[in-house]
Automatic annotation (TrEMBL):
Gene3D superfamilies registered for this protein in UniProt: 3.90.660.10, FAD/NAD(P)-binding domain
Function (record text): Catalyzes the oxidation of the 1,2-dihydro- and 1,6-dihydro- isomeric forms of beta-NAD(P) back to beta-NAD(P)+. May serve to protect primary metabolism dehydrogenases from inhibition by the 1,2-dihydro- and 1,6-dihydro-beta-NAD(P) isomers.
Keywords: FAD, Flavoprotein, NAD, NADP, Nucleotide-binding, Oxidoreductase
Protein source organism: Stutzerimonas degradans
Official protein name in the record: Renalase
Enzyme class: oxidoreductase
UniProt keyword Repeat present: no
Cofactor(s) this protein requires: FAD
């Protein structure tokens, strides 16, 4: 009988990073995601008039290993540098805020990276895993419809911490660590304008009550939508305070804040979309790398194990795979 594969729950950057490392090391993997596609918080939304990045806006690469992976992504055409006209808005004042920081985006959309990393690896989408239990030696996963999946030799949980703790119940110490991680929400709003807004701004850090960040999609490489689409992110505290506000009211309030901030007249958008990220980022960074119960064969990774950024998610996935391989 062939060896049971390794189950990976979550196809965000962390789960995909672990999957790639294990696949490269000759291990069979099987991925699961509750969504209909991969990428998690590096999601891009495709609409008739083009696409836009609804979650992660760009990423930086500070760790040598991540920089090496990024070089490969760039050679393959999955990622490219993004050098927007950057601004800072503080106390109602909008000012240029150029810097030397290298920033990167997926091409032609942020989600392209996850799609490329997934490649042909076996995956089951629209499958919310609710339980992972271990028999004598092997693991079985149960999904929200009550269906069983398995057997698996190991399980890697690569979901946000609040969703990971239940899946880590077989290892109470790991479950307790995941349960201790608070994650902050972010409301995101996309606005599409028929006529390009007459402004130089392409990206803006905001120090304000409501807004935290805004970006102009068409300034990113490879985007060719016919609307001038902007993505606005609310601050974590505003998002928390307005967690249950309707999408319409959130769009209206953030559009109002945007119109006040930007240095031009803002017409009514052709297109508006609001999305609530309930678990957008860990309240604090951690230095766990990944969590492991090598005896059981249960592992956890995700941005919450490190820096709460794309780079942290990727590094955490590598670390989970490294620790698993070390114990084979
Ligand atoms: C609004 C926003 C803006 C951001 N901006 C930036 C930025 O500019 N730069 C940056 O570096 N980072 C940014 N981030 C953070 C970055 O997106 C994350 O750090 C990173 O993508 C997390 O990857 P991950 O694999 O750890 O988790 P995720 O991407 O959350 O992946 C987890 C996956 O698990 C799946 N899942 C969850 N529960 C289950 C279950 N029970 N069964 C099956 N599947 C399940 C989910 O569907 C998801 O696909 C931003 C995040 C948000 C939300
Ligand atoms: N909204 C959300 O839920 C999340 C947002 N995330 C953002 O993702 C980005 C990733 O961080 P890094 O990779 O470290 O990127 P980075 O080095 O570009 O930015 C880090 C932080 O430094 C500040 N900053 C950097 N450059 C400037 C500038 N030119 N002018 C003014 N302020 C500046 C700004 O506060 C920014 O958030 C940050 O902007 C995070 O705020 C990360 C995770 C979640």
């Amino acid at each position: 009988m062939s060896k049971a594969p390794i189950a990976i729950i979550g196809t965000g950057i962390a789960g995909l990073s672990a999957a790639q490392a294990l696949h490269t090391a000759g291990q069979a993997v099987q991925l699961f995601d509750k969504s209909r596609r991969c990428g998690g918080r590096t999601a891009s939304k495709q609409i008739e008039s083009g696409s836009f990045d609804l979650g992660a806006q760009y990423f930086t690469a500070r760790d040598r290993r991540f920089r090496e992976a990024l070089q490969h992504w760039q050679e393959e055409g999955w990622a490219a540098p993004w050098s927007p006209n950057l601004y800072l808005s503080r106390a109602g004042q909008l000012e240029p805020s150029t810097d030397e920081q290298a920033r990167w985006v997926g091409t032609p959309q942020m989600a392209s990276i996850a799609r490329a990393l997934l490649g042909d690896l076996p995956v089951t989408f629209s499958c919310r895993i609710t339980e992972a239990f271990r028999g004598e030696e092997l693991w079985t996963l149960v999904d929200a419809d009550g269906a069983s999946h398995g057997p698996f030799s190991h399980v890697i949980v690569a979901t946000p911490a609040p969703q990971a703790s239940a899946l880590l119940a077989a290892a109470p110490k790991l479950a307790a660590v995941a349960a201790s991680v608070a994650m902050e929400p972010t409301w995101a709003v996309a606005l599409g304008f028929a006529t390009p807004l007459p402004t130089q701004v392409e990206g803006c850090f905001v120090q304000d009550d409501a807004l935290d960040w805004l970006a102009r999609e068409r300034s990113k490489p490879g985007r060719n939508g016919h609307l001038d689409t902007w993505v606005l992110h609310a601050t974590n505290s505003w998002s928390r305070q307005h967690l249950d506000l309707s999408k319409e009211a959130v769009s209206e309030q953030l559009l109002g804040a945007f119109a006040e901030l930007i240095d031009c007249v803002v017409p009514a958008p052709e297109f508006t979309l609001a999305h609530r990220w309930l678990y957008a980022r860990p309240a604090q960074p951690h230095e766990w790398g990944a969590l492991a119960d090598a005896g059981l064969g249960l592992y956890a990774c995700g941005d919450w194990c490190l820096s709460g950024r794309v780079e942290g998610a990727w590094l955490s996935g590598q670390e989970a795979a490294r620790r698993l391989l070390e114990h084979l």
